[in-house]
Design a protein that fits this description.
Helices cover 38% and strands 24% of the residues. With 278 residues, it is of the alpha/beta class. It binds adenosine-5'-triphosphate and magnesium ion.
Length: 278
Amino acid sequence: MTQRARDATERATLRTSASESGVIIEVRDVGKSFPLEGKEVKVLSGIDLDVTAGEFVALIGPSGCGKTTLLNLVAGLVQPTTGQIRYEGHEVRGINTHVGYVTQKDTLLPWRTVEGNIAVALDVQRVPAAEKRQRVQAFVKKVGLSGFERHLPHQISGGMRSRVAIARTLIYNPTTIIMDEPFAALDALLRLRLQTELLDIWSEFKTTILYVTHDLSEAIALADRVLVFTQRPARIKLDQRVELPRPRDISKVHTTHEFGELYDLLWRALREEVWIEG
Ligand SMILES: Nc1ncnc2c1ncn2[C@@H]1O[C@H](COP(=O)(O)OP(=O)(O)OP(=O)(O)O)[C@@H](O)[C@H]1O
Ligand SMILES: [Mg+2]
């Protein structure tokens, strides 16, 4: 059995145990404040959220409302001021190693090449060299970086750096993938290709995905649920199911009547939060 097959089996087992209760991520009445110039700024307030194992949830809301903060809380990078976050039934108190995080800020290791960065998690897991090479090569190809394997991060473009960050996370099959505007810096065609690739990976492994985007069309096209956040302190204003059939053709899904109706509904909720009257 290859490491990849073993990983898939382990993940399937984890998924089965998580899906017995169904819920993998529980956010219970979470509030978060940060100190600013001697005062406390309230960023999140009364957030309640259950995410079912295997669900694809998109988060959308005004800039600075607290979306990244919520992702950081689920990843265990920051702790809530009030309330509790649970993952697979356990309170998240430190770094949550079950989640792979494609952060909004690029965190590539500057001294490692493209393939070295993609291989980081496999190095930590001590995956044998031959298998590591094979898996890295497959992901280099998937994200369109063939020929750049030996380049260092400062020698490639911003969009290419985000592709390295995505490959680096997807390669080790985490139970949950958290993505913070992962495709924002990419051109439209590449974005389409990677969105399709992400949906393929998601349906193959039934990974749970939390996905922040500023693009409402992208949120609807990809997700099972779209959460609309208010301005700071952010609350969940609307939690909307997306019942569009799967598999979805990302290049065409926006042309359907159902898509248009969902777009209108979500935009009405969002525009009150982001629209600045001129
Ligand atoms: N570690 C921190 N210390 C102090 N303030 C913070 C910290 N992290 C976030 N904030 C503040 O919390 C607020 C929400 O930030 P956050 O990054 O979560 O917003 P966001 O919704 O992701 O915005 P954007 O869409 O622009 O990425 C901002 O005002 C930010 O300055
Ligand atoms: Mg953010």
